[in-house]
Amino acid sequence: MKNLAPKLTEEQYEANFAELNPPLSRNSAVAEANRCLYCFDSPCMKACPTHIDISTFIKKIATDNVKGSAKTILKSNWVALTCAKACPVDVLCEGACVYNERNEPPIRIGRLQRYAMDWYFDHGAPALFHPASPNGKSVGIVGAGPAGLSCGAELALLGYDVTMYEAKEKPGGLDTWGIAPYKMKQKDSLNEVRLIESLGVRIRTKTKVGVDISMDQLLKTHDALFLGIGLGSASSLNVPGEDLAGVIDALDFIDDVTTRNWSAVNVGGRVAVIGAGNTAIDAATEARRLGAQQVLMIYRRSEKEMPAYTFEFELAKSDGVIFHFLTAPKRILGSGHVEAIECVNMRLDAAGPDGRRKPVEIPGSEFRIPVDMVITSVGQNLEKSFVSTIPGLKIKNGAIEVNSETMQTTNSKVFAGGDCISGGQEVVNAAAEGKRAARAMHASMSRGS
Amino acid sequence: MVDLSINCGGIKSPNPFWLASAPPTNSGYQVCKAFEAGWGGAVWKTIGEPVMNVVNRYGSIDYNGQKIVGLNNIELISDRPIEVNLREIAETKKLWPDRAVIASLMVESKRDTWHDIVKRTIDTGCDGIELNYGCPHGMSERGMGSAVGQVPEYCAMITEWVTEVSTIPVLVKLTPNIADVRFPGRAAKKGKASGISLINTINTIMGVDLDTLELKPSVDGKGGHGGYAGPAVKPIALNMVSQIAGDREIGLPISGIGGISTWRDALEFILLGATSVQVCTAVMHHGFRIIDDLTEGLTNWMEEKRFRTLDEVRGKSLQCVADFGNLNLLYKTVARIDESKCIQCNLCHIACEDGAHQCIDLIPHNGKNQPKVREGDCVGCRLCFIVCPVDGCISMIRKDDGTEAITWNELMKQMPQPLTWEALRQFQKKHGVEIH
User: Fold this and answer.
1) In a shared domain, residues B69 and B146
2) Which of B8, B126, B135, B352 is catalytic?
3) How many beta-carbon contacts under 8 Å exist across A and B?
4) What domain range is B246 assigned to?
5) Which residues of chain B have pLDDT under 70?
6) CA distance A78 to chain B (A)
7) How many structural domains comprise chain B?
8) I need a surface site. Which of A50, A143, A430, B133 has the fewest CB within 10 A?
9) Least CA distance to A101: which residue of chain B?
10) Which residues of A309-340 are buried (b: 16+ CB within 10 A; e: fewer)?
């Protein structure tokens, strides 16, 4: 990069990446817990993909039975601390709270869940669940993200011998690598990993299936496999200049930021982020917090079509991120490194086959913006070459095809969950799918014996 | 124009709000500050025998995150000498001639001792005397406080000792720690009291600390019963006030005490017969400044309801107090849920299903469950109405046409005695009352 943003002091970095939602004190947690009506068939519980018994765990906080509260949560969700900090609660549990019907603020379920889980990990994660004695069956899990971890934990409790294969040096998947540091710390995710390991799950990190160990061997070694491989390479912009220095994929950028070695992450003085999903927003706000003077978000549709959640959009705006809607990149310009981006104005045409209005270029409306760095965040793709090494596996709409009840793929021995079957959803969806798969795998293997 | 002034057994004050005899009236400084804020009167913290307090004097019941739903204390009467208190009472009265300054007294049960303290008290120029027959801790073990209030004969005797020398009104403050509060009330009347104050605090142990296993509060590892007050005791106090107010033998003015925190609480006491009301715990929690809302809220209510004086309000609800035997057995209501207000928390369903009569069903509707009352099976118990968190969502709808009414007492006169289940069943059948 030619024009780097000046480095900040350690204090500035710490302040910029301080938690957005600090923990509740005991007093405020108990007061908030007492505000919960303890609905009989809580809509919040139904709205949570993992169906945590929310009103029960909240009432346990109110009585100071925080350990019991954590147990209630973990029964339904193995990555509950991550979910507490990273879930879009206003479209899930909190959005379903009956208080909304009364025009009152909903119970702060996410913050209360975090209170219980913080307590649990601060108290050394005491054993709450005890695995059944070994049943002699072995399961292999590819990818130690939230789907794989949830599946592995469930199966370990049922007595399976579970081995997880993780390409990265630290397990946790996007929980560890993909969540903005002002939402949660890597340590939180690694605490959850350790809890799952304590159930007897083995995690082999730095082990890329297909490189360090073959898929054939996995299929031979294990009675069943679960794929929680997430998505692979980032989609390209398909514009000239993408190979210039200073063009970086959002996930790689976020990866670097997550290590918390702030001063080592280079960020341009002027940054353009392409895309307007939640990952794009994370990248934009992180760039600002690392010291970029100007961050632009460039999105080819309008604010209405933007996939980012409202609260993420608001966060970016309050961080001073400038939005260019109905704008698409045409070229990235520069000699060796990024110097400018050429964009074109767009208009929305009739809806395409996906139901979304199609953006169309307005000819002659091209303009240039001088920038030093371009962060691309226009989606990720399934690693099809890897998937093709598994016999019988079918891909549908860019994702691994599964039975949505059992999470079984078109290869009866192989199950899957998480982003690789959905194309990219929330941690909590992955957690739910991993559990659902585990139950179906157990049913299938029990039948088989 | 609303007039809030009152005359309680000869003690006049510009509004009915008096500070109860308690820590907020411990000193001239406090009472003057309270009068400055607008309090109508103050009953001085009880003066009398030499005492020495212990520390960690208060215990609290906090409920669902709300602090001090109930407050317990083991503080004794004033631990300042009699002469200091009497001097400050005299000074305060001189500064605030229009407010009611009442001295609360408690000395050992000797006629001469009582005569002496009463005379010295009158010399201060205060407006009245309140006899503390209520304190349930510390003093009772020394034969004073509730040890007197619990024995109607002592109560009458000591009141007589006081009234035979007193030239100013004498209120007798009753303890609730007794089976029937009307007996000491009648004894106060017999002793020629000018009025009755009630209730004093209720005997309680506030709780056990689950880490130390000691009582709360703990005095160096030990604790015991104390006097309980605050919002939680209000219903108990209301009952006792209505008992005294409704007793034909007593017929004395009442100063109502027990959990009064708001003007609404105060009005309930007045509607059940109180002339003045006394406040302590709410002031200990929030300070004297609450008087502003007390007087303003009361004034606004009286204006809205078109009352001019508290004499017009007092005792208005006593006519609604009845024994169970005089309630109409044929009055019939059922619960009705306003679905436009319902938020589907379904607390009514689970309360009825597990705690009452199993007549609220959950009907799937638009992905949620809508509670619905099976009116034919509803016994009208009102539990769902109470648990519903939405104002006006559940109402109790009258089902009988009001043409027939019979009370248990009337019914028993008609029924063959001794009463049998079969005879009662026939009566119920005739009137469409189903027990299931």
Assistant:
1) yes
2) B135
3) 35
4) 6-318
5) none
6) 27
7) 2
8) A50
9) B343
10) eeebbebbeebebebbbbbbbbbbbbeebbbb
